[in-house]
Amino acid sequence: MSKHYDVAAFIWPSYHPDPRARVFWPMGIGEWETVMKNAPKFEGHDQPRYPLWGYVNEADPYVMEMQIEAAVDHGVNTFIYDWYWYDGMPYLEGCLNDGFLKAKNHHKMKFYLMWANHDVNLAWDKRNADDAFTGRNSALIWKGGLHRAEFEVICRRFIERYFSHPSYYQIDGKPVFMLYDLETFIKGLGGMAAAKAALDWFRDEVRKAGFKGLELQLSMRKDSEHSLSGVPGDTVGTQKEAVAKLGFNSLTHYQFCHFIDVNRDYNEIMAGVVQEWETVAAAHAPVRYYPHVSVGWDSSPRTFGVKGSIVRNNTPANFEQALRQAKAFADARPEQAPLITLNSWNEWTETSYLQPCNRFGYGYLEAVRKVFKG
After folding, report:
1. How far is the C-alpha of 180 from the C-alpha of 313, rounded, in Å?
2. Pair type for strands 110-115 and 89-91
3. What was the pLDDT predicted at 259?
4. DSSP alpha helix (H) spans, the chain
5. pTM: predicted TM-score of the whole model, two decimal places
6. Strands 339-343, 292-294: parallel, antiparallel or unpaired by DSSP?
7. pLDDT at 139
8. How much is the mean pLDDT over the chain?
9. Which of 3, 144, 321, 340 has the most CB within a 10 Å radius?
């Protein structure tokens, strides 16, 4: 009997109508508008990439039923939903609420949430993204940080709407909840002491709801001596110190570009990635680290002229080898959950997706199947 692995792919839930999203994508179909306008930026640029499934509405439960079947058939058994909250209300929640949770077969998969609590500028808007990426116009549209009262509002939403759902992913009876931007979180609450108090309250509320506790997970950046303090007189310290002080249970990454130079060959990148997995696991023990694999990176579809960093040679075959390295890392740690995170299910405008495309067909999904279901 083959070993079970929790293969969890991030979902960028922007490919559906959302009234608030029209500020970036006025056609009303979400970021598909940007994908449709994708074009190569230079000679030899491996673009455009288009979805074989077409520009579907991922808030349609029938669409998500098809996607769930494809995911499970190929070994992806968990979705990690990017979750947003701006100006006192949720944003892009329809993909999860109306798509996945209303799909008749959602019981075949697990899901959990990553609160993508970053600030928002014009980078999602292709018409203005060149200025945003170059810094010529970094106008802030929404703030990601929240004060305590609003944090409690969203935590109750997590517990009541999502943690209690039978398909919500747990580790040791604890719902898993991932935080994207640690620095913004701390600053929004007013410093380390306030952030710790807020998380302690959150854990208590989760236990009151009948769970064994909260599995608090962090989407990491590269460890450094950079202090996360943005509050006068507050000594937050480094990411590593904050992880310990705030009591995170586990760590993973969201994207290779968050901790390593991705403007090179995929196999060269992976050599450094595997080393980073080991470094993080040793440096943060006993906090658990779950290995992360990104399909690739090229955010140029969001721009007209800006090139940026681009992963090269990220073929399905090389991606498969990366998955095998992640599997070996997990196998070497039988005491922790067999969780591996992937970027991503559908990040078309960052060119890091598992869904079938005009370039590789079902190649990336087949790579997952060979490694985890072979």
Report:
1. 28
2. unpaired
3. 97
4. 32-36, 61-73, 94, 129-134, 148-157, 182-189, 192-208, 239-246, 266-284, 316-331, 363-372
5. 0.97
6. parallel
7. 84
8. 95
9. 340
Coil, helix or strand for 82?
strand
The fold of the 6-372 domain, in CATH, is: TIM Barrel (3.20.20)
Among 275, 281, 269, smallest CA distance to 333 is for 281
CA–CA separation, 349 and 182 (whole Å): 24
- Pair 205, 211: CB distance under 8 Å: no
Residue 130 confidence (pLDDT): 82
Task: Judge if the upstream peptide bond of residue 166 is cis by omega within 30 degrees of 0.
Answer: no
Residue pair 255/210 in contact (Cβ under 8 Å)? The answer is no
Q: Which of 229, 231, 144 is nearest to 179 (CA)?
A: 144
Confidence of residue 34 (pLDDT cuts 50, 70, 90): very high
* DSSP calls for 120-175: B-GGG-TTTHHHHHHTS-----B-----HHHHHHHHHHIIIIIITSTTB-EETTEE
Q: Tell me the average pLDDT across 246-267.
A: 98
Residue 168, strand partner residues: 111
Q: Where are the domains of the chain?
A: 6-372
Q: What is the 3-state secondary structure (H, E, C) of 255-266?
A: CHHHCCCCCCEH
Cα dihedral sign, 237-222-353-334: negative
54: left (phi over 0), alpha (psi -120 to 50) or beta: left
Query: Taking Cα atoms as reference points, which of 3, 154, 177 lies closest to residue 75?
Result: 3
Structure token digits, residue 164: 């209690």
